[in-house]
C-alpha cells in the first residue's frame, strides 16, 4: 500500500513517485540513499548550469552532463533486467531504460527550470521539451538524442504495424499516475522473467490498490501470478472475475477451462 494517494502523487516529482512505488514492492529498497544521490546530482547541475541565461544552452549542457560526463546510458545488453527499474541500481550502474533514465533526467531538469515533461509514447517513455515560442522538441532518454516525429512514426510502425499513424494524443503530457502505472507494468514483467513471483504479485497489488482498482485485465494477470505461487483458489477467483467482466474476450473460454482445473485442487488452509 502506498503512503500517497493517486492525487498526491501528481504533486511530487515523478522520481519521488517512483521511489514510493518501488518501496511498496521491495520493502528493503534504499530510498533514502537514492534521495541523497539525486540531491547531489541536482546541486552539481545547478552549480554548472543554472547561471546560463539561455534555456536552450542550459538544456544542451544538461544533456552533455547527464549522458557524457556522468555516463548514463541505455542498457542494450540487459534491457529487461529489474536492475534497470530499481533506481539505486540505475544510479550505481549508470544504466537503465527510458522510463528510469527519463525520471532521473526530469528531476535534474526541473531544478534547472527547463520546460520538460514526460509523454507515454506507445513504444516507450519520451521527454518533451515545450518551448514557449518555438516547436516542441523530443528527447529519447535512452541515449539523450533528439528525435523527430518522423522517427517516432517509424518506431510506431515497427511496434504496431505498417499502417499505424501518429495521433495527437501520443504527444500529450503524461500524468505521474500514467507513468507510474506503466513503470509498475515494466517492473512486473521484469520480475516475471526472473521468476520473482512474490515481487510481481506486489506490483499487481499496488496497481490495483492505487491506479486501476477493479481492472479486469490486471486481475487476470494477477491470477496467472497466483498460479505460479500455487495459490490455486485465489487464481481461480481472479480468473472468474475476468470472465464475468470480459465474457467476449478471446481469453475467457480458455480461462473457463483453467478455472475448472483449479477448482479440483483441494483447498489448503495455512
UniProtKB/TrEMBL annotation:
Lineage: Bacteria, Pseudomonadati, Pseudomonadota, Gammaproteobacteria, Vibrionales
Segments passing through the bilayer: none
Domain of life the protein comes from: Bacteria
PANTHER family: F-BOX ONLY PROTEIN 21, SI:DKEY-261L7.2
Name of the protein: Protein SirB1 N-terminal domain-containing protein
InterPro entries xref list: SirB1_N
One Pfam family recorded for the sequence: Transglut_core2
Entry's family note: Belongs to the UPF0162 family.
Residue span, Protein SirB1 N-terminal domain: 34-184
